[in-house]
Amino acid sequence: MSATRTHTVIESPIGPLTLVATANGLCGLYMAEHRHKPDESTFGDSAPANFGEAKAQLSEYFSGERTEFTLPLDPSGTEFQHRVWAALRTVPYGQTWTYLDLAQTLGNPLAVRAVAAANGKNPISIVVPCHRVVGSDGSLTGFAGGLDRKRYLLERESGGVSDVLF
Predict the structure, then answer these.
(1) Averaged pLDDT, groups of 10, the chain, 166 residues long
(2) Which residue in 14, 27, 130, 144 is the catalytic one?
(3) Taking a C-beta distance cutoff of 8 angstroms, is the pair 122, 85 a contact?
């Protein structure tokens, strides 16, 4: 790890969120019980003051006032993963795409499994909206934060939820 990282933990309707950043931007957003969560020793020092804008935008998102994030991002990943994560940011708020839709957006409809794997490794959940990707039949499929959180986020974006989940 070459870039110095800092982190903070904030409360949200889906439980605590751990935000991790480098000097270049947000590089991680992890939920409790998050699959693929890096070892917390890699998160750097606690520095809540470094996350004012991220906290504000997440608060606006959860209150229904924000539909798109404008934070600088600095995720670690392969070139292919970066392409998938950039495509995820084009999935409109309140809508879902299938893994095939995402693969087609990238110009390779045969890459469904690779797209699904990259989607699952997205280190910046919510901000990079991997929760908006569903199975080919519209079913909720894997989400690093768990299917209850995925369902909650999708329902919140469609206007169907106002309570806290955790």
Answers:
(1) 83 94 95 80 89 96 93 96 96 93 94 92 94 84 75 87 55
(2) 130
(3) yes
Encoding tokens for residue 56? 């504000």
Record the pTM.
0.89
Question: Has 130 been annotated as catalytic?
Answer: yes
Task: Mark 119-148 as b/e (b = at least 16 C-beta within 10 Å).
Answer: bbbbbbbbbbbbbbbbeeeeeebebbbbee
DSSP H or E segment with residue 45: strand 45-46
Name the DSSP letter for residue 38: P
Q: Please state, in angstroms and rounded to a whole number, the distance separating the CA atoms of residues 83 and 77.
A: 10
* CA–CA dist 75, 5 (Å, integer): 12
